[in-house]
Design brief:
Family: Belongs to the multi antimicrobial extrusion (MATE) (TC 2.A.66.1) family.
Number of strands: 0
Subcellular location: Membrane
Keywords: Membrane, Transmembrane, Transmembrane helix, Transport
Distance between the termini: 41 Å
Helix content: over 70%
Strand content: under 5%
InterPro entries: MATE_euk, MATE_fam
Structural class: mainly alpha
Protein name: Protein DETOXIFICATION
Length: about 500
C-alpha cells in the first residue's frame, strides 16, 4: 500500500454542465458534519451515523438484492441438479465450485479495476472517463474469457488430474460444457455492474435480476424435468439467464438519461493504454482470485477424502449457504468500495474513514444474525438440497464451522472492498498469499489428512487463514492516513485521465 508524502491540499473538482446522480449528502453534508467542532462528539457521531446510514442503505439494499438474486440463480441450478440424485449434486457442486468459480473469481477480480477507477472518477466529477473505463475492461475480460474457455473444454481431464473421482468428473464436465457461454456474460456483466454501482445506479439492476430469476426458475424446471436435459440443460439455462441480465443492463445504460454524461458511445480510447490498464486489472484479479480459489481448493481437497461423494455433498451445501449469506456482505462490500472511492475522489478523507466504520458494523451485525440462524436450523437445512439422511448429519456436524465462516465473512470482504476503493489491490494480494496459501491451506491439509479430521479439519485450518487475514486488514485500515489516500486518488485519476477522442460511429 503506497502513501503519498506530498502535503495535502484542498482541490475542488471541476463542475460539469450536468451532474448525474449526484447526492448532496454524499458530497458535502457528511464531511461538514464530521468537521463541525461546534457539535459535541456524541451529537456529531449521531448525526453523521444517520447521514451515512441513509446513503449506505440507499446504495447497499438494491446491491444486496442484485448479488443475492444472481447467486440464487446458481444456487437454484444446484438444487435442481441435486434432486436428480446425489451424483448429480456432487457433479454440479464440483463443476460450479471446482471450475466455474475459477472463472468467476478471475473475471470479477479484473472487473474490480473499473470499481476503483470509476468510483474515484465519479467522486471527482470526471464523468466522461467512466464509459472509457467500462469499455477497456470489457475488451480485456473478453480476451481473457477466450483463454478460459480451454479450461472448460478440458475440464474432465483436469479434474481427473487433480485426483477427483472418474464418475463425478465425467458428470461435472457435462455440467461445465453448458457454462461456456456464461464466461462471456461474466466478461461484460462485471464491468457494466461496476460502472453502474460507481454512480449509485443499482435499483434498475435489482429489478432486472429479479425478473430474470423468475424466468430462470421456469426455464430450468422445463429443461431439467419436462424436456429431460439433465445437468447440461440446467447449466445452459444458467448461461442464458446471465446473458439476459447483461443485455438488459446495457440497454438501460444506452437509453437512460442517468447515464448520459458517463456513457458517450463506443470510443477508440477503449483500445488505448490496454497494457497499463491490464496491470491494474491483474492486481485486482490476483487479489480476488486468491480469495475465491481458496474456497475452491477446500472443495477440491474434500474430493480426495474417503467417501468423496458424501464429503462433497455436505461441504457444497455448506458452501452454497455460506455463499448465499455472503452475497449480503458482498452487497455491503460493493457499497463500501463505492462510498470510499467517491469520497476519496471528492477529497473527503473524514467521510471515507467514517464510511468504513459504518459499513463494517452493519455487515458484522447481519452476519452474526445469519450465523445464529444456521445453528438453530442446522439439523434441517440440508433437506432443501437433497433427501439423504447421511448428508443431513454431515451438514449438521459442519454447521459450527459454517457459522464461524459467516461471522468472518461479515468483516473480511468489506475490508477487502475498502482496499479496492482505495486502490490497494496489490498489497492485499500479498496478504492473501501469506494468510491463505502459507498458513490456511497447509494447516487445513494437516488437520484433514494427517490428523484424520476429514472435511472438518480442512475447513478449520482454512478458517484460521481467513481469521489471520481479517486481523491484518483491520489493523491496516485502522492505521490508514485518509488525507494521504485522497492525494493518492487524485494522482491516480490524473494518470488515467485521457484526452477526449472521437466517438466511434
Amino acid at each position: 500500500m503506497e502513501s503519498s508524502s506530498s502535503e495535502h491540499t484542498t482541490q475542488q473538482p471541476l463542475l460539469q454542465p450536468q451532474l448525474p446522480n449526484t447526492n448532496p449528502e454524499t458530497t458535502s453534508d457528511l464531511e461538514n458534519t464530521l468537521s463541525d467542532d461546534n457539535l459535541t462528539l456524541f451529537r456529531r457521531m449521531r448525526k453523521a451515523t444517520w447521514i451515512e446510514s441513509k446513503i449506505l442503505f440507499r446504495l447497499a439494499t438494491p446491491t444486496v438484492i442484485v448479488y443475492m438474486i444472481n447467486y440464487l440463480m446458481s444456487m437454484s441450478t444446484q438444487i435442481f441438479s441435486g434432486h436428480l440424485g446425489n451424483l448429480e449434486l456432487a457433479a454440479a457442486s464440483l463443476g460450479n465450485t471446482g471450475i466455474q468459480i475459477f472463472t468467476y473469481g478471475l473475471l470479477l477480480g479484473m472487473g474490480s479495476a473499473v470499481e476503483t477507477l470509476c468510483g474515484q472518477a465519479f467522486g471527482a466529477q470526471k464523468y466522461d472517463m467512466l464509459g472509457i473505463y467500462l469499455q477497456r475492461s470489457a475488451v480485456l475480460l473478453t480476451i481473457t474469457g477466450i483463454l478460459l474457455t480451454l479450461i472448460y473444454v478440458f475440464s474432465e481431464p483436469i479434474l481427473l488430474f487433480l485426483g477427483e473421482s472418474p464418475e463425478i468428473s465425467s458428470a461435472a464436465a457435462v455440467f461445465v460444457y453448458g457454462l461456456i457461454p456464461q464466461i462471456f456474460a461474466y466478461a461484460l456483466n462485471f464491468p457494466i455492474q461496476k460502472f453502474l454501482q460507481a454512480q449509485s445506479i443499482v435499483v434498475p439492476s435489482a429489478c432486472i435480476s429479479t425478473a430474470t430469476l423468475a424466468v430462470h426458475l421456469l426455464l430450468t424446471w422445463v429443461a431439467v424435468y419436462k424436456i429431460g436435459l439433465g445437468l447440461l440443460g440446467a447449466s445452459l439455462v444458467l448461461s442464458l439467464s446471465w446473458w439476459i441480465v447483461v443485455i438488459a443492463q446495457f440497454v438501460y445504460i444506452v437509453r437512460s438519461d442517468k447515464c448520459r454524461s458517463t456513457w458517450n458511445g463506443f470510443s477508440v480510447q477503449a483500445f488505448r493504454g490496454l497494457p497499463e490498464f491490464f496491470k491494474l486489472s491483474a492486481a485486482s484479479a490476483v487479489m480476488l482470485c486468491l480469495e475465491t480459489w481458496y474456497f475452491q481448493i477446500l472443495v477440491l481437497l474434500a474430493g480426495l477424502l474417503e467417501n468423496p461423494e458424501l464429503a462433497l455433498d455436505s461441504l457444497s451445501i455448506c458452501m452454497t449457504i455460506s455463499g448465499w449469506v455472503f452475497m449480503i456482505s458482498v452487497g455491503f462490500n460493493a457499497a463500501a468500495s463505492v462510498r470510499v472511492g467517491n469520497e476519496l475522489g471528492a477529497g473527503h478523507p473524514k467521510s471515507a474513514a467514517f464510511a468504513v466504520v459504518i459499513v463494517t458494523a452493519y455487515s458484522f451485525i447481519i452476519s452474526v444474525a445469519a450465523a445464529v440462524t444456521v445453528m438453530l436450523l442446522r439439523h434441517v437445512i440440508s433437506y432443501g438440497f437433497t433427501d439423504g439422511e447421511a448428508v443431513a448429519e454431515a451438514v449438521s456436524n459442519l454447521s459450527p464451522l459454517l457459522a464461524a465462516s459467516l461471522i468472518l465473512n461479515g468483516i473480511q470482504p468489506v475490508l477487502s472492498d475498502v482496499a479496492v476503493g482505495c486502490g490497494w489491490q496489490a498489497f492485499v494480494a500479498y496478504v492473501n498469499v501469506g494468510c491463505y496459501y502459507v498458513v490456511g491451506i497447509p494447516l487445513g491439509y494437516l488437520l484433514g489428512f494427517y490428523f484424520k479430521l476429514g472435511a472438518k479439519g480442512i475447513w478449520s485450518g482454512m478458517i484460521g487463514g481467513t481469521a489471520m487475514q481479517t486481523l491484518i486488514l483491520i489493523w491496516v485500515t485502522f492505521r490508514t492516513d485518509w488525507k494521504k489516500e485522497v492525494d493518492e486518488a487524485r494522482k491516480r485519476l490524473d494518470k488515467w485521465e485521457d484526452k477526449k477522442e472521437p466517438v466511434l460511429q
